[in-house]
Design goal:
It is built from ten helices and 13 strands. The protein is α/β, with parallel strands linked by helices. Helix 2 runs parallel beside helix 3, helix 7 crosses helix 8 and helix 8 crosses helix 9. The relative contact order is 0.09. Bound molecules: magnesium ion.
């Protein structure tokens, strides 16, 4: 028996009872309201039908052959997909011990036989309302969590280039220091700056400048390794953190980026723009203040500029 009275917009209720007369009585009571009703005669059918129709509420008889109402409810509660469906027991077993067992097995409420129509309607309606509010709350919490994750990502990201911003790269450096101390490996800082960027902005406009910043960010990401971290340090300056890398390796990588940038042409509204970059490199073993390493990288960048730009110093 699987009587179904369907209305796609209404709440779905699954009725479980081994006695067809009881089911017919429940159907007669509940079909006065706008519910979609399904009815089954035993626990295993209840599990099968519930996985298909995903009911909003279940009315469950306790005394049934094979699998009784307690056992069937435990199955529902042990499955992630059906755990949250409220189950109301309908039974003639209403000794305190039975009621206790019904709640312990996961039921939310208890209706005694003989069935009173008014009581069934009131309890069903109130549990559907509670269920709806719980679902709404869950949805609001999920939306808030998602919004928080987005805000968190935005707070760590440079708006224009999508690279890490200054704040988050400092956190990454602090993490690299603890790792360097533990592993006894150095990491390196590479400070890169676009040569004559002001001139480019003056000649082609700020949109061209922004375009170059975005294109260079992507190019540098391509050239660097997965473990390297790239940030926009500010203006036209980029900072690369190279974990578990010595000065020789850092110089090589900086040189590779420099060469790739110098050979690239950047298309901006049909104009082919060329830029170069200068780099200052320094290693850090974690034992010194990283600000000292950063200062040295900055001085090396200054040297690269004063020695004619488009070069790596470190
Ligand atoms: Mg029964």
């Amino acid at each position: 028996m699987n009587n179904q009275i369907q209305n796609p917009d209404s709440h779905r209720i699954l009725l479980v009872d081994d006695n067809p007369a009881n089911l017919n009585l429940l159907i007669a009571i509940l079909e006065t309201q706008d519910y979609s009703l399904s009815a089954v005669l035993d626990g295993s059918q209840a599990l099968k039908v519930a996985s298909e129709i995903k009911p909003d509420l279940i009315l469950m008889d306790i005394v049934m052959p094979n699998m009784d109402g307690y056992e069937t409810t435990k199955y529902f509660k042990s499955n992630d997909d059906t755990r949250d469906i409220p189950i109301i027991f309908i039974t003639e077993k209403n000794e305190p011990e039975d009621i206790k067992k019904a709640f312990e097995s996961g039921g939310v409420d208890f209706i005694s036989k003989p069935i009173n129509a008014e009581e069934v309607l009131v309890r069903v309606e109130s549990h559907l309302k509670i269920q709806m509010l719980l679902k709404q709350n869950k949805k609001i919490i999920e939306e808030l969590q998602e919004a928080n994750l987005k805000l968190d990502a935005q707070a760590k990201t440079d708006h224009l280039t999508g690279l890490f911003n200054r704040r988050s790269i400092v956190e990454i450096i602090e993490y690299e220091i603890t790792r360097a101390l533990r592993s006894k490996e150095t990491f390196c800082l590479v400070l890169g700056d676009i040569d004559h960027f002001k001139q480019l902005n003056d000649s082609y406009g700020h949109l061209a400048g922004d375009h170059i910043l975005i294109e260079l960010s992507q190019l540098m990401k391509k050239v660097t390794r997965d473990q390297d971290v790239l940030a926009r340090w500010g203006g036209e300056e980029f900072l690369l953190v190279l974990p578990a890398t010595d000065l020789v390796g850092a110089r090589l990588l900086a040189e590779k980026i420099r060469a790739r940038v110098a050979e690239e042409s950047f298309d901006f509204n049909g104009q082919q723009l060329k830029v170069t970059m200068s780099f200052g490199v320094e290693s850090c073993d974690g034992s010194d203040d990283y600000n000292d390493s950063f200062k040295t990288a900055d001085e090396n960048l200054y040297k690269a500029k004063s020695e004619g730009r488009n070069r790596v110093v470190g």
